[in-house]
Amino acid sequence: MQTTIVHRLMVVDDSNVIRRRIERSQDLEVQFVGAARNGREALEMHAALRPTLVTMDLTMPEMDGTECVARLIERDPELRILVVSALADKLTAIEALEKGARGFLCKPFTDRQLNDALQKLMSS
Amino acid sequence: MSTETEVGVFLEAVLNYFSTAVQQAAVCGTPFLAIDKIPELSDFTGTIQISGKYSGLVAFTAPKSMLCVMLMRMQETDMCQENLCDLVGEIANTLSGNARRDFGHQFNISVPTVTIGRKNRLELPDGARPIVIPIGWRNYSSTLVVHLL
């Protein structure tokens, strides 16, 4: 018997519009479990929500995404994190990947680009 | 980086933003330097402070009606003031962040601050000559202001 893993998605972004957009636009078999407005909130919510997938903005107040990626991966090395950020330089992407993120999607994005990136993340 | 190159970087970011985020192309008017005159603001303005290798600001200002239509294009149904502020800040953030591709890793951007109302003024140093990029989208007019040192 084949078991299908339903991924649990947490969205981390300081923009409400982006949080809602990601929540709405993903049409994959993913269960949306919650959203955080910054890195600190994401760390607080992580234990209760137990996400398996995270989309992570980088420029956020209180705790930025780079630090949050590192701390989440420290807690759960299997966590699949997709960085979704406007910071378009290569060094930023490399830094996020070095901290443990598994993918990088540059803002702005289309629904299709988001779905493709999440699909890739789930099959990674 | 020359003024022409700076303008090119932001023009590309603006065109990419509209064609991707709301999937309808924008048209940029002829950019100009605002000499002896602080650019006028629209209903909502998102401002990003730049620090690091460069200093200054990037501000995107747009009328409420335009932001409402943009939210609709993003399938957002709630046109509350919070979401309008959020969107104008997110646009300023995205255009600034995208510019790092050309300005480099030391082009540090702040989180956005948002002001509401046409009577507000951008806080620019005396003698500043910011670049003003007029942006047309559908029947709406908005503006990107870039001041970098």
Rg of chain B, alpha carbons? 14 Å
Calculate the terminal CA-CA distance of chain A, rounded to whole Å: 22 Å
CATH uppermost class of chain A: Alpha Beta
- Biggest sheet character of chain B: 8 strands, antiparallel
Task: Please provide a brief summary of the model.
The complex is a heterodimer of chains A (124) and B (149). Chain A has 124 residues and is of the alpha/beta class.
Walkthrough of the structure:
- The complex is a heterodimer of chains A (124) and B (149).
- By secondary structure, chain A is α/β, with parallel strands linked by helices.
- Chain A has one domain: Response regulator (Rossmann fold).
- Chain A is built from 5 helices and 5 strands, in the order βαβαβαβαβα.
- Chain A has a 5-stranded parallel sheet with strand order 2-1-3-4-5, sandwiched between helices.
- In chain A, α2 (39-49) packs parallel to α3.
- The mean pLDDT of chain A is 92.
- Chain B has 149 residues and is of the alpha+beta class.
- Chain B has a single domain (3-148), classed as Chemotaxis protein chec, CATH 3.40.1550.
- Chain B is 35% helix and 29% strand.
- In chain B, strands 1, 2, 3, 4, 5, 6, 7 and 8 form an 8-stranded antiparallel sheet that branches.
- In chain B, β7 (131-137) and β8 (140-148) form a beta hairpin.
- The mean pLDDT of chain B is 94.
- Chain A binds chain B through residues 14-18, 20-21, 24-25, 59-61, 85-89, 91-92, 106-110, and chain B through 16-17, 20-21, 23, 71, 74-76, 82-83, 86-87, 89-90, 93-101, 104-105, 107, 109-111.
